[in-house]
Amino acid sequence: MEIGKLIYDKRKEAGMTQEQLAGILNVARQTVSKWETGEALPDLNSLKKLAVTLGFSIDKAMGIEIEDEGDNSEWLIIGGFIVGNALGMAFDNLMLGYIFAVIGLGMDFIMKAFKKRR
């Protein structure tokens, strides 16, 4: 599910207006509107606040679905996200967290492909 639609759906389920959600998150109403229409993406701190306020998981918001196959593949994604956020803070670019999470997901697919070839 696309993140803008998820925010919109969850906000509506909670019976909140864009203005009310913006007040909780300490952002402008227009910012919430841009997130919902896909014109902009929330930064990491806003995404965390959105997830807590509206009751959804960040991995769902990012479109990451983790299948439990008895391995620890989710740690590649989580580790990538943590490393990316650390680098993002160092280089003042928090999008690196999302990028490294996707890299972790890609590494998971590669590792699963090699396991199947054995």
Give a short synopsis of this structure.
With 118 residues, this protein is an all-alpha fold. It has helices spanning 3-13, 18-25, 29-37, 44-54, 58-61, 74-90, 95-117.
User: Which word captures the global form?
Assistant: elongated
Number of helical segments with 4 or more residues = 7
Strand content: under 5%
Order of helices and strands: HHHHHHH
Overall mean pLDDT stands at 81
Question: How far apart are the termini?
Answer: 34 Å
> How many distinct folded domains?
2
Using the coordinates shown, work out and report the CATH topology of the largest domain.
Answer: 434 Repressor (Amino-terminal Domain)
Rg is 16 Å
Main sheet specs:
none
The helical percent reads over 70%
How does the helix and strand content classify structurally?
mainly alpha
Assign the CATH architecture of the largest domain.
Orthogonal Bundle
Regions with little confidence, pLDDT below 50 for 5+ residues: none
Tell me the number of strands.
0
- The CATH superfamily of the largest domain is identified as lambda repressor-like DNA-binding domains
- Tell me, what is the CATH class of the largest domain? Mainly Alpha
Keywords:
7 helices; 70% helix; mainly alpha; 2 domains; 434 Repressor (Amino-terminal Domain); 118 residues
Description:
The structure is a single chain. The longest helix has 23 residues, at 95-117. The protein is elongated, with a radius of gyration of 16 Å. The chain folds into two domains: 3-61, Orthogonal Bundle (434 Repressor (Amino-terminal Domain)); 74-117. It has helices at 3-13, 18-25, 29-37, 44-54, 58-61, 74-90, 95-117. It contains seven helices and no strands. α6 (74-90) runs antiparallel to α7. The termini are far apart. By secondary structure, it is mainly α.
